[in-house]
Design brief:
It comes from Collimonas rhizosphaerae. Residues 37-144 form the Aldehyde oxidase/xanthine dehydrogenase a/b hammerhead domain. This is Xanthine dehydrogenase molybdopterin binding subunit. One of its GO terms (molecular function) is xanthine dehydrogenase activity. Helix content is 29%, strand content 24%. Helix 10 crosses helix 11, helix 14 packs parallel to helix 15 (537-564) and helix 18 (742-753) runs parallel beside helix 19 (770-786). It has 787 residues and is an alpha+beta fold. An 8-stranded mixed beta sheet has the order 4-6-2-13-10-11-12-21, with helices on both faces.
């Protein structure tokens, strides 16, 4: 692979020394060697305690039905079975919903999707438990099922009331618009497909205590759910997570079911119980990215500037609310993407369907909101015979001093807009205009293979929509040998949060990174944590850890100044040593002396993001701390006979602010790009007429492979510095890059449009599978013949 990357190794250091820094360096992931050697400990690798039992879930085979009766005789007599548990065995609350109490741990009388857990079997082995659950006999009374968001919308079937945001007077603006474009769009969902499936291991402790080792992005939520299910206080429950083998949002709220079932069984049997999901069962039980259906209408002038926009979007929420409300809220807030929309009317509904309860997925509604406006801009450009890039640039938010065109539809003023400069840089570096001309020449002489090119921008808001989630805590311990242990509320899922937090602490204390270790996330150490989600992991936990480390540094500085005389503010911590004038001492030696003088060498830290507020009734406020920007250019070739396609080259430029770790950030951009490309092209979720998910295994659900990556993949970080006081002026890099591969989808659409001389807008839904591409090609050919 000819991959060109650019890493800025030494941004201007901040903090203790202008000549030394641990932040801004491209350090490897703290567990990279363990990953490669297979020595990294995941939940299923933890040595099992004596007497450990294994659980499996018995799942509904109907999309919507009442349970008349259940016969467990064959289950209980199966080899190795120790116990069978139903909702009647739950001592506390039968609920694992993160917001609304509408999501039972185990169904009672009513099942609402194929795959819904009804009971749990506990046996002496994982295989025996899985075999036993299949022996149950259930008598169902089937009920009508709603399976699509369109059907839910038509039936006014929602998991919560619809949302509405309006600014200006869209109807009046439509009446004066020179042109209008309207239509429908469907964008499918996406399976998180983490390499490590859902798993929890519950170990009973004395006095009704429970230790839950869980692969989760939200240990505190798991603590709450388990405590409620067992009918005990939160202090009885300890949830620990050293690392996950991927999360992508699928382990934010939906790890709760697995933690609860394992804990209920362990509490009842007084023995450790592990619940590990088989891949098929995992995909059948858990929710995915919300698919969206859109009805849109946009008015625009002769130049292509949008003057009015109206969209009605409905998501497939599934059978319960889960996180659908904040997902829809973020979709509404990201409908604008990088474009100023003066007069808008945006509606969003969360359709109640008899399918898995959809949940968080990297981007959390942002991609679903932004792709709609990108589709519309693409249509405007083709209607006017213009290059889509020109229409995009025309509609960009104004620069920061351009009053009136720098306020979002929800009322937040944009003060850090760099999209103009970023896109200009990428347009030049990718040779967009030259390649556009070369592709036109190629397509003119190629009747079957057609090339396409697209440049798409990204603006993504960083913070939780729910203001109180924007807080974090951390503990920092300095030992007498100068080594440091850090614990924080974030969870490591491969993204490198522990590496970045360790860098922040090392930098703050002026010591080499190898002296800092981050321990497993643990609810008994840092309490009341937020989920590692919304791209806030490093922002929140890095600030909290910095706060704790700063307190210790201040104490050590005061002690060192007391030893040698001088001002504590003049003490410098750098490169593993402490300096004050002519006096120097190794950090470890100072820690030892400070201990002997009874100086406290540990501290807690806390951070709450300032300036955030949101009114869910009016859907206005300042929900985001700042925005991350980016853009990408993709070039594809499409076989118009088979629908096959290939990504030939991708250029991505991403605004990570003043990056904490450029190597990790570039890796995140690359991974997000390929994951987002999969969502928009190959990853198709399909339910049959009976509501059963048929794409529930790698054999039927296609995530991108190595061969799907472009041979020419150029990823760079945009040189920038966050205007907000984020951790070392960096910017988040978890979710925003997932929007970059919009360019792949629109490059495919560009290639299809060339079949009709780019006179017609190809009808193309996502994912743009080979079948969908062929259907779109046929539609364009039909339009060309009719014209």
């Amino acid at each position: 692979m000819n991959k060109q990357t650019e890493v800025f190794m030494k941004p201007t250091p901040q903090g203790n020394s202008s000549a030394w820094a641990e932040v801004g360096q491209s350090h490897p992931h703290e567990s990279a060697i363990l990953h490669v050697l297979g020595e990294a400990t995941y939940t299923d690798d933890i040595p099992e305690a004596q007497g450990t039992l294994h659980a499996a879930l018995g799942m509904s085979q109907k999309a919507h039905a009442r349970i008349r009766s259940i016969n467990f005789d064959a289950v209980r007599s199966a080899p190795g079975v120790v116990a069978v548990f139903t909702e009647a065995d739950i001592p506390g609350t039968n609920d694992c919903g993160p917001i609304l109490h509408d999501d039972p741990i185990l169904a009672k009388d009513l099942v609402e999707y194929v795959g819904q857990p009804i009971f749990a079997v506990v046996a002496d082995s994982h295989d025996n438990a899985r075999r036993a659950v299949r022996k149950v006999v259930i008598d169902y009374e089937e009920l009508p099922a709603i399976l699509t968001p369109q059907a839910a919308h038509a039936a006014k079937s929602y998991v919560l009331p619809p949302m509405h945001l309006a600014r200006g007077n869209a109807q009046q603006a439509f009446e004066t618009a020179a042109h209008r474009v309207s239509g429908q769009l469907y964008v499918g969902g996406q399976e998180q497909f983490y390499l490590e499936g859902q798993i929890s291991y519950a170990i009973p402790k004395e006095q009704n205590g429970m230790l839950v080792l869980c692969s989760t992005q939200h240990p505190t939520e798991m603590q709450h759910v388990v405590a409620h299910a067992l009918g005990v206080h939160s202090h009885n429950i300890v949830v620990e997570c050293r690392r996950m083998g991927g999360g992508f949002g699928g382990k934010e709220s939906q790890s709760a079911l697995w933690a609860a079932v394992a804990s209920i069984a362990a509490a009842k049997l007084k023995r450790p119980v592990k619940l590990r999901a088989d891949r098929d069962d995992d995909m059948m039980v858990t929710g995915k990215r919300h698919c969206f259906y859109y009805d849109y209408e946009v008015g625009y002038d002769d130049a292509g500037r949008i003057v009015a926009a109206k969209v009605d979007m409905v998501s497939r929420a599934g059978f319960s609310a889960d996180l659908s409300a904040p997902v829809a809220t973020r979709a509404v807030c990201h409908f604008d993407n990088t474009y100023y929309l003066s007069d808008v009317d945006i509606k969003a509904s969360c359709g109640k369907t008899n399918t898995q309860s959809n949940t968080a997925f990297r981007g959390f509604g942002g991609p679903q909101g932004a792709i709609a406006i990108e589709y519309i801009v693409d249509e405007i450009a083709r209607n006017l015979g213009r290059d889509p890039l020109d229409i995009r640039k025309l509609n960009f938010y104004g620069r920061n001093d351009e009053e009136g065109r720098n306020v979002t539809q929800y009322g937040q003023k944009i003060v850090d807009n760099v999209i103009h400069e970023l896109v200009a840089e990428l347009e030049a570096s990718s040779e967009y205009r030259q390649r556009r001309a070369a592709i036109e020449t190629f397509n003119a002489g190629s009747p079957v293979l057609k090339k396409g090119l697209a440049l798409t921008p990204v603006k993504f808001g960083i913070a939780f929509n729910v203001t109180h989630f924007n807080q974090a805590g951390a503990l920092v311990h300095v030992y007498t040998d100068g080594s440091v242990l850090v614990n924080h509320g974030g969870t490591e899922m491969g993204q490198g949060i522990n590496t970045k937090v360790a860098q922040v602490v090392a930098h703050e204390l002026g010591i080499p990174l190898e002296l800092v270790r981050v321990s497993a996330t643990d609810t008994s150490k840092v309490a009341n944590t937020s989920a590692t989600a919304a791209s806030t992991g490093a922002d929140l936990n890095g600030k909290a850890a910095q706060d704790a480390a700063h307190t210790i540094r201040r104490r050590l500085a005061e002690f060192f100044a007391k030893l040698h005389g001088g001002d504590a503010k003049a003490v410098v911590f750098a490169a593993g040593a402490v300096h004050l004038g002519e006096h120097s001492m190794a950090f470890g030696d100072l820690a030892q002396k400070a201990y002997l003088s009874r100086v406290q060498l540990w501290s807690d830290g806390f951070y709450a993001t300032p300036g955030l507020h949101w009114d869910p009734k009016t859907m206005t406020g300042r929900p985001f701390s700042y925005f991350a920007y980016g853009a990408s250019v993709s070039e594809v070739v499409v076989d118009t006979f088979t629908g096959e396609w290939k990504l030939l080259r991708a250029d991505a430029l991403y605004d990570a602010g003043q990056s904490l770790n450029p190597a990790l950030d570039i890796g995140q951009v690359e991974g997000a790009f390929i994951q987002g490309m999969g969502w928009l092209t190959t990853e198709e979720l399909w339910w049959n007429k009976d509501g059963k998910l048929m794409t529930h295994a790698p054999s039927t659900y296609k995530i991108p492979g190595v061969s799907d990556c472009p041979q020419d993949f150029r990823v760079k970080l945009f040189k920038n510095r966050n205007v907000e006081d984020s951790i070392h002026r960096s910017k988040a890099v978890g979710e925003p890059p997932l929007l970059l591969p919009f360019s792949v989808f629109f490059a495919i659409r560009d290639a299809i449009a060339s079949v009709g001389g780019k006179r017609f807008n190809p009808p193309l839904n996502a994912p743009a599978t080979s079948e969908a591409i062929l259907k779109s090609v046929d539609a364009v050919r039909a339009m060309a013949r009719a014209a």
